[in-house]
């Protein structure tokens, strides 16, 4: 089923707003964190979310219009709830902050996977699949960081019994 430009616009604008929201969210979490490694990871996530926003704006210009216009107040619905939790918590443990970031990445991954078929152009599908994969990679990185912060250093590689490095 081919979507209208209006539907495509709405979905892409929500994705763009979601990238902005995650960027701001990760900056907030970095400010609340006392852990140098966690701050470094959160800054990398900020950089990636900025790059994702540029990709989405380019897709918008290609498939909808050169003029982006105003973004919606709410991006990805499930992400909005996670961000609200992040704003409400005070100084929390690193694990609490990382858990919120993990939830944000799950919401983003699902959104891109769900909307991958928005446009029939294979290049669009490829771009959304890449965005979904990068968000999933963020999830994996955050899980590893949470385990390291929690003191769980018993990660093993799949093909042998050696410890994986952090």
Could you please describe the fold and organization of this structure?
With 166 residues, the protein is mostly helical. The protein has a single domain (5-149), classed as Up-down Bundle (Ferritin). The chain has five helices and no strands. The longest helix has 28 residues, at 5-32.
Average pLDDT: 83
- Going by CATH, the homologous superfamily would be Ferritin, core subunit, four-helix bundle
Radius of gyration computed on alpha carbons:
17 Å
Amount of beta strand: under 5%
* CATH fold-level label: Ferritin
CATH C-level category: Mainly Alpha
Major beta sheet summary: none
The secondary structure category is mainly alpha
Strand segment tally: 0
**Number of separate domains:** 1
What is the number of helical segments per DSSP (H or I, 4+ residues)?
Answer: 5
What would CATH call the architecture? Up-down Bundle
